[in-house]
Amino acid sequence: MSAESKGWTAAPISFLALTLVLSLADAPAFSQGDETRAKAEARIESALTDYATALAETDRDARLAGFSRAEQGFASIVREGVETPALFTNLGNAAFQAAHPGRAVLAYRRALALDPNAMVPRQNLAHFRSLLPAWVPTPNEAAGAQTLLFYRGIPTSLRAALAAGSFLLGALGFALAIRRKEGAWRGLGYFAWVVWALLLASVLLDGNEDRRDFAVIMVEETPARSADSDLAPLSLPDPLPAGVEVERLETRTEWSRVRLANGRDVWVRNSAVTSIGRSQSL
Hints:
There is one protein chain. By secondary structure, the chain is of the alpha+beta class. The chain contains nine helices and five strands, in the order αααααααααβββββ. It has helices at 13-24, 34-56, 60-79, 85-97, 101-114, 119-131, 143-148, 156-180, 183-210, and strands at residues 213-217, 245-252, 255-259, 265-269, 273-275. The chain has a five-stranded antiparallel beta sheet. Helix 4 (85-97) packs antiparallel against helix 5 and helix 5 packs antiparallel against helix 6. The longest helix has 28 residues, at 183-210. It is extended and about 80 Å long.
């Protein structure tokens, strides 16, 4: 799938520079000293320059080469252990402009794994999904559903601590209600235990989500088969394009059973799919 043919609109270069500078300010890989930070920022400036130069190119091959250089520049920072939503977002932008849709979607999903409320990678990912063929199943993420997941901006450890505190507060409220015969304390107990139940549910839901292996099809024209064999019948009349989001359910030797967004299970080669949680595979 070509970025040129699909009419992808790149993010402004000034926005890319701003988000990257801000995102690297507290990155753990730069805690070793100013020299390490300076070298990394110099490489980022080089990647941004490659991106800006590619945007101005009129020759298609030169544009793709420039975006590929920018992609490799951003990816080299990730490989050193720096993982921020802005860095992954810019990596995704460069990858998509370089006509590497699988890498682009992988980067956007990793940005959202770090910050589920990040708007830019979510918007870019939604735009990419709209460019896929109509028959390809895509995740349906309504705005309302994202609003219900606002709690993910609060660290799980903090929610667990707040849940414990709410439970103790509820127990105290009921104890005081029994001793003083006052309904207000009982109401406090009920309220605190409702808060405890909601916080506990959010922690448990996050635990279940973390155990799921979400992944991205990385190889163009990936056959989807009914079993783990090259001789098995095709499950779909057309091969899956790069960038399709799936959930990996099972792995057998050279094959993975994956679930598409419409709930259908198919088998693909392990080499064709990459898990979102494994950033070292970039």
